Amino acid sequence: MTSLAISASRILLIIGGGVAAYKSLELIRRLRERGANVRVVMTAAAQQFVSPLSAAALSGAAVRDDLFSLVDEAEMGHIELSRSADLIVVAPATADLLARMAQGLANDLASTTLLATDKRVLVAPAMNVRMWLHPATQRNVGTLRGDGVAFVGPDDGEMACGEFGPGRMAEPLAIVAAIERQLLQPTVIPLPDGPPLRGPLSDRHVVVTAGPTFEPIDPVRFIGNRSSGRQGFALAEAAVGAGARVTLISGPVALLDPPGALVVRVETAKQMLDAALAAMPADVFIAAAAVADWRVEAVSDQKLKKGARGAPSLSLVENPDILGRIAATSAARPRLVAGFAAETENVIENAKRKLSRKGCDLIVANSVAEGSGVFGGAENEVHIVTASGVSSWPRMSKPEIAYKLIELFATRLRSVQ
Ligand code: CTP
Questions:
Q1: Fewer CB atoms < 10 Å away: N or C end of the chain?
Q2: DSSP category for residue 340
Q3: Whole-angstrom Cα distance, residue 87 to residue 85?
């Protein structure tokens, strides 16, 4: 399966001092061609193997190597450096670097960044087979796994030192695949003020879909849309505020996780459906995602190339209707199933038809006609369509709409007890 999780992700790559460091240059290329933003930190030892200039040229950004650089710290301090990434990747991770990580040492920029981060860390170890198998290294690996650090490799094989066994750094494409898996892991950022809030949705489970879906054409191209995910994220935030346990299933968006919600990042409609079904049972299901209606039938494993045969023709198949599927579940259907209808004409009529076609309880209808500024914008003007009628709300910000919708859902849930 071709994954697009890496596009627009922010990866902080820490290059340790090992022969395998040259493969990290290849890793930078692979990440960049998939649309990732890559920043590089190199240890002093790493610079004996590859030049910071090569890493800077490939990543398109200056390489950081000095904890005490006044210039670098003035531009972006090491704490910010460690937090502004979605994922920290250490490749190659030497025995020495693993030991310092396991001990919590902070005696250079790489180790300080690793100690200061609140983000996931993925390491790709590379060292001599005896060093890898040494009880001290294995102890450190155990400690790091216990701390939640993820590993990719090492692989078995012939090593630069002539010995054979585990210790070779994983190949760049295997590291890319491990990075994709890490970026798609569900996360919960704790609420700043500690325990969950109490409110009208306490003890309720609310599941929200948000953002676009990206349907791959090949490893670098996709069919998508301009949904920003703002309305869905605002709903998730408002539901957390109302005391609910919230699962937010989001397509690729450039928004920060709302604290307190379990955020499941997906890319395709199929993955979004699987995540929604896995999140059940729920009391409320809100489909705010702009799901792509079609996907490419046969996704190419390799980047499609221009050639004598001209433009490729793509055969499309229809995606599953996530809202329709959840509304149609007979066992444990959420008590309230709400969808959105983004229409360019006949807004109310189309929304009424959608309400009955999808079998949901409520449709939030809005116009996305040219000039409405809704898609990707900060405001919206909605009509609440139910079997019993239509209520039109004045234009408001998306967070305000979210807050009022959550209030409405809580009221309706109480009345269908
Ligand atoms: N939806 C969904 N799964 C799909 C398509 C849409 O869950 N495969 C949900 C959306 O999240 C939204 C609602 O269905 O809540 C309506 O989406 P919209 O794109 O307006 O409707 P479509 O089903 O695509 O219908 P049409 O193409 O006729 O507008």
A1: C
A2: E
A3: 5
Ligand 1 pocket, residue 73 CB under 6 Å: no
Q: Which residues pair with 209 in a beta bridge?
A: 249, 287
Q: What is the pLDDT of residues 297-330, one digit of tens each?
A: 999 888 888 888 888 899 999 999 999 999 998 8
Pocket lining: 285 vs ligand 1, CB cutoff 6 Å:
no
* Interval 13-20 mean pLDDT: 96
Q: Flag whether pLDDT at 3 surpasses 60.
A: no
Q: Please, which pLDDT band fits residue 367 given cuts at 50, 70 and 90?
A: confident
- pTM for this model (two decimals): 0.74
User: Which residue is catalytic, options 161, 173, 328, 378?
Assistant: 161
Q: Is 269 near ligand 1, meaning CB less than 6 Å away? A: yes
The domains located in the chain, with CATH, are 10-183 (3.40.50.1950), 189-301+314-415 (3.40.50.10300)
Nearest residue (CA) to ligand 1, atom 27: 293
What is the SS3 assignment for 165-203?
Answer: EEEECCCHHHHHHHHHHHHCCCEECCCCCCCCCCCCCCC
Distance of CA 408 to the CA centre of its chain: 29
